[in-house]
Amino acid sequence: MADDPIVAVILAGGLSRRMGGGDKCLRLLGGVALLTRIIDRLRPQVDAMVLNANGDPARFAGFPLPVTADVIDGYAGPLAGILTGMAWARAQHPHATWLISVASDAPFFPTDLVRRLLTGARKGRTTLACAASAGQAHPVFGLWKIRLEDDLRQAVTVEGLRKVDLWTARHGCEIVDFPADGIDPFFNVNRPEDLAEAERLLSRIG
Hints:
alpha/beta; seven-stranded mixed beta sheet; globular; two-stranded antiparallel ribbon; about 210 residues; Spore Coat Polysaccharide Biosynthesis Protein SpsA, Chain A; about 20% strand
């Protein structure tokens, strides 16, 4: 963890249409909920975390983290979740300067994600850093200065912006590449067949 507190938001506010609805993060992988795997990988990297999920929070009562719904209505996508994380961090951890966002359906993301994104942001002297692998950027796995909250709120609520990379392009985003040797660490479970592939990958990496 860094000298400055880093707060994390786990993004689970989507509708999971390609999975047939419901909460993807509650699906089991190797007998363990995806969300549990996300929490276990993320907790050592940050000072606090929150789950961004809409609907009744009681369904997550068995998980050791607070739950907060989107601060704006209409299922506005990951930018709304990042904005929600920023607002939660500012209210609950006012001394934190950075927010890390991660997807709730990517069980193999790097255990050094935060450290490497922070190093990238500092090296590039940017307010944003996002992960990449195998030639593809993964803007949902990003590190964000919390002071950008008002700018992001304007973009989402007034301009109707929805694509993460359109907003990050305005501020200059340091792209940090992660190796994908045999397995892409940002492999995510969108469809039932992806869950089957994740089971195969899990058996391979142990």
